[in-house]
Amino acid sequence: MEEVPQRISAVRKTQGIEVDPGFLLGHAPLTIPANTKAVILFDQSFETNAYPQLDVSGGKGSTIRLIYSEALIDQNGAKGNRNDIAGREVVGESDVFVPDGGANRRFTPLWFRTYRLH
C-alpha cells in the first residue's frame, strides 16, 4: 500500500465563513472566529482512502465534526451525480474533535476514512 500526502483540492460550499484560497495550497491558515458556526464542504475530486489530518490551535470549548461521503444525497436519500451539491446534504461516517485550547494540536483518526467530500 502506498502512503502519499494529499491536500484537499477544492472548497465547494461555505456557510458562516470564507476560506482563503491559500489555505488549500498550504500557504494560509483557516481561522474560524470564536462563537462562529462554520460549515465547509471540501471536495477531494476523487474517492480516496486516507487518514485525514487536522491541525488546530485554540478553540477551547468548540466542536469540530468531519463527515465523510462519496456523494451528497438528496431529500429522497439518493446519491445521483457526485458533482451536484445544490439541495443536497452530506451523510456519512464522522469524527468529532474537541480542542482543548492548546497550540498545535493534531487530530488523525485511528483508522482510514474513505471519502470524496467532507
How does this model look, in words?
It contains one helix and seven strands. With 118 residues, the chain is mainly beta. The protein has one domain (10-117): Sandwich (Jelly Rolls), CATH 2.60.120. The chain is globular, with a radius of gyration of 15 Å. The mean pLDDT is 92.
Topology:
Layout: E1 10-15, H1 21-25, E2 39-50, E3 54-56, E4 64-68, E5 93-97, E6 105-107, E7 113-117
Antiparallel strand pairs: 1-2, 2-7, 3-6, 4-5
Core attributes:
118 residues; mainly beta; Jelly Rolls; three-stranded antiparallel beta sheet; two-stranded antiparallel sheet; globular
Question: In short, what is this structure?
Answer:
By secondary structure, the protein is mainly β. 4% of the residues lie in helices and 33% in strands.
The total strand number stands at 7
| Lateral arrangement of strands in the main beta sheet | 1-2-7
Average per-residue pLDDT, rounded, comes to 92
What is the radius of gyration? 15 Å
SSE pattern? EHEEEEEE
Query: Which CATH class is shown?
Result: Mainly Beta
Judging by the overall fold, what is the CATH architecture?
Sandwich
Number of domains: 1
Number of helices: 1
Low-confidence stretches: none
Distance N to C terminus: 23 Å
Approximate shape: globular
Return the CATH topology. Answer: Jelly Rolls
